Amino acid sequence: MKKLTKIIEAASNFGAALSSLFFLLITLFILVEVFLRAVFNTSTLVCDEFSAYMFVWLVMLGLSYTFKENAHIRINILLFRLNRKFRWILENISLFLAFIVLLFIFYHSLLMVLESYHLDMRADTIAETPLFIPQIALPVGFLTFALQVLAKLLQNISKGIPR
Q1: Domain named Tripartite ATP-independent periplasmic transporters DctQ component: which ranges (predicted)?
Q2: What confidence tens digit (pLDDT) does each residue in 47-91 have?
């Protein structure tokens, strides 16, 4: 189980590294676009489109890492009023439900990607990007997020009820 958790955490860390790379690329794309418009009065015509696609990847790949680092916003005002055993049970039920919901979203986002691929859907832009390419970020992100939630659930269960 520890090996599985380490693999999932490595995937989350890799996603965070890719998110950082996409952030840098978005910044670079915007700087190039501003420079081209200011100096040469021209445009790449695809900067905003590709930046938006990279932003989706940035967010989706960052979800699991953010969860791993406990950086998602949590409303836990009521949790502190509960005893440790009930809090542990409630936390694990929440993680299990989150895992199920994320798998559901993963499945349907995967169906969307497959439909876009089979219908050869393309962006209505000059690049005519096949839409399945940026859409792949959704199932990848939701799957890695679901796996990170599962890793947390397995860690909680293996540690047992806190004393």
Answers
A1: 26-157
A2: 999 999 999 999 999 999 999 998 888 777 777 788 888 889 999
Other C-beta atoms closer than 10 Å to the C-beta of 37 total 13
**What's phi and psi for 130, nearest 5 deg?**
-60, 125
Total-model pTM: 0.91
Q: Give the range of the structural domain holding residue 139, as residue numbers without chain letter.
A: 2-159
Selection from 160, 155, 118 nearest residue 135 by Cα: 118
pLDDT by residue (tens digit) across 124-150?
999 999 999 999 999 999 999 999 999
CA distance 145 to 149: 6
Between CA 109 and CA 102 the distance in angstroms is 10
